[in-house]
Design goal:
By secondary structure, the protein is an all-alpha fold. It has a single domain, classed as Rhodopsin 7-helix transmembrane proteins (Rhopdopsin 7-helix transmembrane proteins, Up-down Bundle), CATH 1.20.1070. The chain has ten helices and three strands. The chain has a three-stranded mixed sheet. Helix 1 packs antiparallel against helix 2, helix 8 packs antiparallel against helix 9 and helix 9 packs across helix 10. It is globular, with a radius of gyration of 21 Å. The N and C termini lie far apart (about 45 Å). About 0% of the residues have low confidence. It is found in: Cell membrane. GO terms for molecular function: G protein-coupled receptor activity; olfactory receptor activity. InterPro entries: GPCR_Rhodpsn, GPCR_Rhodpsn_7TM, Olfact_rcpt, OR51/52/56-like. Odorant receptor.
C-alpha cells in the first residue's frame, strides 16, 4: 500500500516515465536512510532464508503451521525485494526514473504480495482454529492437500484480484509534470476499495476465528491447557496486529486526503519492509520448536 501518483499541472505533455523523488522534505539527506533500509532488507533475506532451510532440514517442523510460515517467508522476500531494490537505486545511484510499464508492474507486485501476506495470515489462523477448537479432527482436516489448495487459491485470488489496479491506473492520461514525491509507484485512489475488499474480508475472518478460539479456550477446565493453547497463537497475533494496524493508519491518511508528507510516505515504505524482517524473528523467539532449531544452527556456526 503506498501513496497516490500525484503530479502537478504546471505544464501539459504526454508522460512516458515518472521520476520518484523519494521522501518528501528530506531530499538533501535522504540517502542516509539507505543504510537502515539496506540492513532491514538483508535481515529480511537472511532470516527468511534461514527459516526455509530450518523447516526443510527438520522433519519435526514439516507441519502445517511451519509450512505456512515457510510460504510467508517466500512472500516476505518477494515484497521486500520489490520495494527495497528500487529505493536503494534511488538513494545510491540517483536512479529516480521509472518507466510507465515498470511503474504499473511495481503497482501489481506490491499489491499482489501484500494481498498474499494477508491471505497467508488467514490460512495460519485457520490452522490454529482447527488445532484448538477441533483437535481430534485436525489431522484429517489440515492435510498437505488442503495446504496446497489453500495456497493455490491465494495465488489465484490475488493474482487475478489485483489486475484491475494497474489496468485502471494505465487508463489515465498522465499529461503533466512527472515528478512523484514518493519512493514507490502506486495509485492509492484506484486501489483503496479493491485492497480493502480483499484484506477486509481476510481481517473479518481472522477476527471471527480468534473469537471462536477464545471462546473455546475459556471453556477449558485447566488454566495450564488454556495458556498453552493461547501461546501457540501469540506470535501469529503479534504479526497480525502490526500488519493491519499500519494498513489502517495508511488508509486513514488517504481518507483524510492528507498530502504527501514525510510520515505517511515513510509509513508506506516501512510497512513493506519491516514485516518481512520482523516475521521470522517473532516466530523464532515465541515458538519453542523453531527457537531450538535456530539455536542449533547458531551453535554449529559458532563451532
Amino acid at each position: 500500500m503506498s501513496a497516490s501518483l500525484k503530479v502537478s499541472n504546471s505544464s501539459k505533455f504526454p508522460v512516458s516515465e515518472f521520476i520518484l523523488l523519494g521522501f518528501p522534505g528530506i531530499h538533501s539527506w535522504q540517502h542516509w536512510l539507505s543504510l537502515p533500509l539496506a540492513l532491514l532488507y538483508l535481515s529480511a533475506l537472511g532470516a527468511n532464508t534461514l527459516i526455509l532451510l530450518i523447516i526443510w532440514q527438520n522433519a519435526s517442523l514439516q507441519q502445517p503451521m511451519y509450512l505456512f510460515l515457510g510460504i510467508l517467508s517466500v512472500v516476505d522476500m518477494g515484497l521486500a525485494t520489490t520495494i527495497t531494490l528500487k529505493n536503494l537505486a534511488i538513494f545510491w545511484f540517483d536512479a529516480k526514473v521509472i518507466s510507465l510499464p515498470e511503474c504499473f508492474a511495481q503497482i501489481y507486485a506490491i499489491h499482489f504480495f501484500v494481498g498474499m501476506e494477508s491471505g497467508i495470515f488467514l490460512c495460519m489462523v485457520f490452522d490454529r482454529y482447527v488445532a484448538i477448537c477441533h483437535p481430534l479432527r485436525y489431522p484429517s482436516v489440515v492435510t498437505s492437500s488442503l495446504i496446497l489448495k489453500a495456497n493455490l487459491f491465494m495465488v489465484l485470488r490475488n493474482g487475478l484480484f489485483v489486475i484491475p489496479v494497474p489496468v485502471l491506473a494505465a487508463q489515465h492520461d498522465y499529461c503533466s509534470r512527472n515528478e512523484i514525491e514518493h519512493c514507490l509507484c502506486s495509485n492509492l485512489g484506484v486501489t483503496f476499495v479493491l485492497a480493502w475488499l480483499g484484506m477486509g474480508s481476510d481481517l473479518s475472518l481472522i477476527i471471527l476465528s480468534y473469537i471462536l478460539i477464545l471462546y473455546s479456550v475459556l471453556r477449558l477446565n485447566s488454566v495450564e491447557a488454556a495458556a498453552k493453547a493461547l501461546s501457540t497463537c501469540s506470535s501469529h497475533l503479534t504479526l497480525i496486529l502490526f500488519f493491519y494496524t499500519i494498513v489502517v493508519v495508511i488508509s486513514v491518511t488517504h481518507l483524510t486526503e492528507m498530502r504527501a508528507t514525510l510520515i505517511p510516505v515513510l509509513l508506506n515504505v516501512l510497512h513493506n519492509i519491516i514485516p518481512p524482517s520482523l516475521n521470522p524473528i517473532v516466530y523464532a523467539l515465541q515458538t519453542k520448536e523453531l527457537r531450538a532449531a535456530f539455536q542449533k544452527v547458531l551453535f554449529r556456526l559458532h563451532l
